[in-house]
Write a structure and sequence with these properties.
By secondary structure, the protein is α+β, with helices and mostly antiparallel strands. It contains eleven helices and 17 strands. Helix 4 crosses helix 7 (361-377) and helix 8 packs across helix 10. The strands form four sheets. It has a six-stranded mixed β-sheet with strand order 1-3-4-5-6-7, with no helix packed on it. It folds into two domains: 8-34 and 154-437, Neutral Protease, domain 2 (Orthogonal Bundle), CATH 1.10.390; 57-143, no CATH class. The chain starts with 7 loop residues before the first helix and ends in an 8-residue tail after the last helix.
Amino acid sequence: MKRFKDYCAVLLAACFLISAGCDAKPTETTEETTPATTTEATVTETEPVETEKSYPTVEIGEEFVIKEDEIYKLNVDDEVYLRCNFFDTTRDYITLFLEYNGKDYYAEFDKQDDGTFARSKSCYNPYPLTLVGLEDDGYKVKFEKKIDIPPLVEAKPSGNKDEKYTVKDYEYIETKYSVIFLDKDITVPGNIAEMVDSMIEVTQEKIGLKYTGKDDEFPADTMHPEFIYLGCAPFEELDVPKSKARIYFIKDRENKGWVSCATARTAIIIMSDLYESELNYELAHEFTHVIFEANLGYFSTTLTEGLAVYAGHAFEAYAGVKTDVFYSGDYIGNLDKITPDNASEIYAKVNTGEDGPARDNHYAYGHMMITFMFETYGKDCLKTLIDKLSDIQGDNFVNNYYPSTEEQISMLKAAYGEDFFKDFGNWYKDNHKRPEFNR
């Protein structure tokens, strides 16, 4: 039964899923990390406001027009400045810049069907800004009262997998490899911390890559799920070490059908409609996207989804469970017959969504291709691709390389040989009916 569509790659591009053997073994690490602390985290960096200068002052609730290159100061105890870097009403969004006690935030507004602009729920501002209207040469806005951030509460589940832990407040747990954020009013297994850490160990071992959280540069900044917290940021003051992944367990507050997703630092698991038995798969699937995008950036929708399916099945096998969530069998019947001669052509159609009504075929195609790669080129096959990308595109390709499908095909051939797709087509003939591809 197909219960989830993971559109993380679509989210990431617009803003950002086997062999399920039981032989995956946890990896050990001696790496020291700095614990999470409750200091405010910088969201984005711009040139700071020159606070010694005098700026026009406004009150909370007062409407005013801010024009290009202007800065206004809010008359409150905090240091709050609003900056307009450019004036442009032709876009589908409007961006202003808010400086709050030396930290920078975006104030964004999305164009609605009627041509008006509404505050984006994906942005958190300590003092929310309302766009009242558009003037000939500026934006009419007003500040609202400061949002009270709920106090941080460290969760203390029992650690027993047979018990449940119901979250009463916004709570968090810092584990060996991650910081887990728990939404109010959700229920998680009592061993959620141990479950996450074992998932990270097994997944990293299975796919031959590790979460690389030390680098400041990622293809996208941390995905803050304020769009689900409805503009609030309950964990804003928790400064998470870069070496640890962020994993959010969230309730779909407005029942809008949010789906689990991920970026290069953050995995977001939607709990509203998630069966307990599916949690193992969903966790490993999303965290695999975190690893892939931290190591390979935006290289391939097909490969990131295929790897995530591969790893999800592997962690299920490790955990001793098997569910019917989002398996390749949902799509494999929709794929054209892959041959040595057309394998690259079908990759192109699948990767770009041009394969007709079965637009999610990249899950099935990617799952089989990733399995082929591990079985043919070995456990370090993805490192081979990373090395080739570094050689050709430079060490910083993760941050600035957005290859077309044609470029992806060329890179795969460069990494694994000119006959890569032909070899996959031959492998497909002998392997596509295996049980792990058809359940």
